[in-house]
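Regression check, S-adenosyl-L-homocysteine case 198:
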Amino acid sequence: MVDTHLKIKEIKEYAKENNVPIMMDDGIQFLTNFIIKHKIKNVLEIGTAIGYSAIMMALANPDVRVTTIERDHERYLEAVKNIKKLEVEDRITLIYQDALEVDIRDSYDLVFIDAAKGKDLAFFEKFSKNLEYNGFIITDNINFHGYVAMDEKEIKSKNLRSLVKKIKIYINYLKNNKEFHTDFYDVGDGVSVSTRTS
Ligand code: SAH
Ligand code: MG
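Current build output:
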């Protein structure tokens, strides 16, 4: 629908104007194609921001349901608004809480990690317990704007350097994980897909 297109465009413009780090175009395309290809029905998203990726996942297939967690109040409120605007509020459940504190009992066939970059490992460990046996864990921003490939000495900011270090630890954790196999894709800002090995 033309209307849907326009509304999505408005959300993307809001993100740009307010520096909300939503998924890049080819990243979101990868994610929605993945959902269609693997017939994903239930998604748990860590990091809603203003609801853009949750809405795109819900629009990928009418069977998709998304539960998504956001700790920032302003963004959460914007997400509530956007989900109503796109009329997907019956298929998206928003949780306003810190993902590391929330207690989720349900199981999902996809866990999508896109929150605080230094906490990927903690999110992975916590939410792999909510993964259906044959489910997938997808993590966004594995390349972190190219910083992960850079020589650490070239990264001037100490905070940034420490964040990059944590992402590298996460990448190694995924590579050495015996329970999960992970493929890395150079789309968007870098995306990884993890599945159970046996
Ligand atoms: N998935 C969104 C973008 C998310 S940006 C999209 O592509 O449209 C990352 C978001 O994660 C931010 O809004 C930030 O507030 C949130 N976040 C970071 N750490 C979090 C945590 N521990 N719990 C919940 N949300 C968190
Ligand atoms: Mg992201």
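Comparison notes: The helical segments are 2-17, 25-37, 52-60, 73-85, 120-127, 158-176. The chain has one domain: 4-196. No diff flagged against the previous build.
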